[in-house]
């Protein structure tokens, strides 16, 4: 039996992860598993490569395609940073305080 025979299409697509920024105003991310929290200044996304924090100004969720794992964000992008495995719980706790 082939390893990939029992995998559905979504799991195969999730293995790919790209981040595309256009003029610091439009951001497209693939390989997104879940949008944990967001507001107009920060997003916390769980991707296949770990948690990704996006910070900016007037951020808006323009597109969310959960079947394909694609998220599109519009606004002024200031920062993108990945959270290491050891810091994931800390990041979740930090963002839960911000997004109350």
Automatic annotation (TrEMBL):
Segments crossing the lipid bilayer: none
Taxonomic superkingdom: Bacteria
Alphabetical list of Gene3D superfamilies matching this protein: 2.60.40.2000
Protein known as: Sporulation protein YabP
Gene name of the encoded protein: yabP
């Amino acid at each position: 039996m082939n390893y990939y025979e029992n995998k559905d299409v979504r799991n195969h697509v999730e293995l790919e992860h790209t981040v595309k920024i256009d003029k610091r105003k439009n951001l497209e991310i693939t390989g997104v598993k879940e949008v944990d929290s967001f507001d107009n200044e920060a997003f916390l996304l769980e991707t296949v490569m770990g948690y990704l924090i996006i910070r900016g100004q007037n951020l808006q969720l323009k597109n969310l395609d959960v079947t394909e794992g694609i998220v599109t964000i519009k606004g002024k992008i200031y920062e993108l940073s990945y959270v290491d495995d050891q810091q994931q719980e800390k990041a979740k706790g930090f963002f839960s305080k911000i997004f109350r």
